[in-house]
Structure formats: C-alpha cells, structure tokens
Amino acid sequence: MAQPEKWTLRQKIIGVLLRQARLEVGKTLKECGQVLGFSSGVVSAIEHGKRAISLPELEMLAFYLSVPLDFFLNDGNAPSGPSPEELPSEEVLMLRHRIIAALLHQARSEQGLSQKELAEMAGLSKRRLSQYEQGQTPIPLVELEAMTEALDVPLTYFLDEGIGPIGEHQQREREWRQFTELPPDVRAFVLEPVNLSYLRMAMHLSQVPADGLRNIASSLLDITL
User: Buried (b) or exposed (e) across 27-44, using 16+ Cβ within 10 A?
Assistant: First the structure.
C-alpha cells in the first residue's frame, strides 16, 4: 500500500474512534473544537479523515474525553481509566508541538541521517520535514508514525511521559491498565489496607542487592532452625 493511501486509511480510523469517544461522553463538535482552538468544521473534518491530527492534539482530546491515548493508537483496543482533572491550557499544546519537533531532530541526528534521507524514507519532502523540525508546523500523527518506522524508534519516544498534566494523566492510565491486568487475587490483596505493610516490605526488598537477599534468607533459616 502506498504511503499516502496508508495515511488516509489511518486518518479515517482515528476519525471514527474520535467520533465514537466524543459521542459516548456527549461532547459536541464545537466543544471539542474549543479545546484545540479549532472550529467545529475542523473537528468534523478530522472525524471524517479529511484532516490530519497531530499527536499533541490527539493527546489533548483524549484527555478531554477521558479516553486512554492507546484507544486511538491501538485502534480502539484499550480499557478506560480514571477521569482527568482540569483541562490544560492551549500553551501546553504549543509546548508539546515544540517538544516533538526537538525530539524528531534529536532522533534523526542520533541515527546519523540527513533531512533529505529521512524525508525520502518517510515519503515526505525535505522542506516539509524541515518545517516539522523547526516547530513551524504541527506534525500529523500519520506522518510522525511513518518517521518513527524510518528512525526505528517507538512512538512512545514522542509521548508525554509524565511531564505536565496530560503526561501525568497518561501515566496514571498506564498504571491503572497494568493494575487491571493483575490476577484477581493479587488485586484483592493490594486493595486491602491491612496489607500495606507487606507491600512496603516487598518494595523495600526489591531494592536490596542479590547478596543482601541471600544474607536475609540465611538469617531467617538460622532463626527457624
């Protein structure tokens, strides 16, 4: 499948998922547009796959709609997590665009690739890639995904990992998802307040070097014997 055709299909999938998430929480096109500083028509175009959405814009909408970002990145296969708090300001969105631009430049430099080489590998023009790296233009998610493949780095390289309100929310989502994937008996044990001391002990022991654990085990054997 040619790159532009692949991007179009990906945009349509994201649009369908965005519309699904928006309708499930009862938000209007206008409300979602206000979050990003867009008109309702722009959001409608995104939902119909006619306009590309950038990673920071998708992060902001996922936060606003109380949907894990993985819901969009994994084609709808992600459980819901805790609801977010107050929506971050538009300055956060602009900052994320600049951070991703800097990370893109860093990843390309570390791979020893020129802008021309990466642009050709990702199916972009050198001029367009230059604009992305300078933070002049938000990077459409589908094109960012193409560049991650060319750079051999995961998309998580560009995610907001615990930095700022959106990153903190995403971190809590990951922790919540990991908790729900634990066996039922383990979850039940963790949720019991009386077991807190055991959990803290386990946390402490996990930081003890192997030799230290062997010494502890040896001491316990001496006591029991």
Answer: bebeebbebbebeeebbb
Enter the DSSP assignment of 82: P
142, with CB counted inside 10 A (0-12, 13-18, 19+), is buried
Q: Domain limits of the chain?
A: 1-181, 183-225
∠ CA 134-93-34, rounded to 5°: 130
In the structure, what pLDDT confidence band is assigned to residue 95 with cuts at 50, 70 and 90? confident
For tokens 């570390």, what's the residue? 110
Taking the C-alpha atoms of residue 82 and residue 222, their distance in angstroms, rounded to an integer, is 47
Q: What is the DSSP string of 121-140?
A: HHT--HHHHHHHHTTSSPPB
DSSP tag of 112:
T
Per-residue pLDDT tens over the stretch 188-221: 887 888 878 877 777 777 777 777 666 666 665 5
Write out the two tokens for 79. 């459980």
Which letter, b or e, does each residue of 68-89 get, where b requires 16 or more Cβ atoms within 10 Å of its Cβ? bbbbbbeeeebeebeebeeebe
Considering only the top CATH level, what class is 1-181? Answer: mainly alpha
Spell out the alpha helix ranges (H) of the chain. 3-24, 29-36, 40-47, 55-64, 70-73, 90-110, 115-122, 126-133, 141-151, 164-180, 184-191, 196-206, 210-224
49 Ramachandran zone, left/alpha/beta (phi>0; psi -120 to 50): left
